[in-house]
Amino acid sequence: MSIAFLLTTLVVCVTPGTGVVYTLAAGLSRGRRAGVVAAVGCTLAIVPHVLATVTGVAALLHASATAFQVLKYAGVVYLLHMAWAMVRDKGAIGGGRDAAPASARQVMVRAVLINLLNPKVTIFFLAFLPQFVDPARPHAVPRMLTLGGVFMLVTFVVFVAYGVLAASVRRHVTSRPRVMAWLRRGFAGSFLVMGAKLAFTAR
Predict the structure, then answer these.
(1) pLDDT, position 153
(2) Total domain count for the chain?
């Protein structure tokens, strides 16, 4: 395992994306436990993408315009749904009375779907892993799985840090209605922008 792989993985994981935004929102709205649960969900969603890359399904997805478009627009719809939920539900950010009903299972499912319904993640692994593993060499599949596991571990650690950091400032912001209103709009805007970017993503 090269230093280049670890550094690239760290940069990719630290860079804010849909998973990071959702983990921050979960940590702010529900606390540390929800932030960790969101991190777990986002990390678990990587498994299908890695397996798709290793088994060749990712290459088929990249080659099939129909399959790519179906998955892409499913992801767009879900991101728009998340944006609308942030605007509509005042308990989504702020830990108000409406925040309690969201269970750990719901946080987990939302986190998984955010990463799972994003074909860009699959295409990323399709382009990323072969740079560090020659598919023609022996034991290429186990090595790819190992690198995928390391990527997941780094993702989990980074996302937990984001979630815990968000939870640590929760008390300081949830008591300020104006701040919470702007945070809701900010998270909603982030999901909206990411949904728009995904909609215009080509294979």
Answers:
(1) 94
(2) 1
